[in-house]
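Appendix B, record 7
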Amino acid sequence: MKTVGATCLLEARELTKRYGAVTVVDGVSLGIARGETLGLVGESGSGKTTVARMIMRLVEPTSGAVEFDGVDLLAAAKGELRRLRRRMAMVFQDPFAALNPRMRVREILAEPFAIQGGFARAVLDARLLELLAEVGLEADALGRFPHEFSGGQRQRINIARAIALKPELLVLDEPVSALDVSVGAQVVNLLRDLQRVHGMSYLFISHSMPLVRYLCDRVAVMERGRLVEVGPVLEVCERPREEYTQRLIAATPEMPVG
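Structure tokens (predicted):
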């Protein structure tokens, strides 16, 4: 099990987000070590996704700080931020909405490489085939459109695009909540295998404590925009201190993973 310390990859301090008089996230601090999976869990509306989006700078925080590998993301200039973003990627909740329906899979997967530039066609083609194999899809997927795939297959395409540039941090925002239970379990096991191979760090956002228990090293529990409990996942799941955490554990059924 990984712990945050000298090998800390990402550190968020006192992140706060307000929309007018409404505070959506209130002073959230968390860290993720290299190779660690941190679960961020809570009910819908607890602020989990807003935290993730602030970390990725898709949403600007009202206050607070985010450091990636010791660099202040919020103060980074555009060029430096662009370079840092190559080392981070995000997988979104809805596997269909995240894909351009007018683009074939080849174009979708080639986007990150086009942004980075400098890849010969033969090298790019080989890398696209490698990505498909990594996520369990056949080579003929390259010529097809998103609507031709099942929900689970579309999420695999999203994951392939996210890992294209071999990021060090993958932010996963409820990546299986739109899938049925058995398909979701397959995707979770894929994520576990990919982490084992590539050594990525994960921020795994979920409302399911059993799922977090299976995949994560540590867990941070959010309620109404604030962190209420943080600790090793087995400790929190087996001996939760907070009544809110106890309710989350009781409310979510086991998932057939493993």
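Remarks on this record: The radius of gyration is 18 Å. Strands lie at 8-19, 22-33, 37-41, 63-68, 71-72, 88-91, 169-173, 201-206, 218-223, 226-232.
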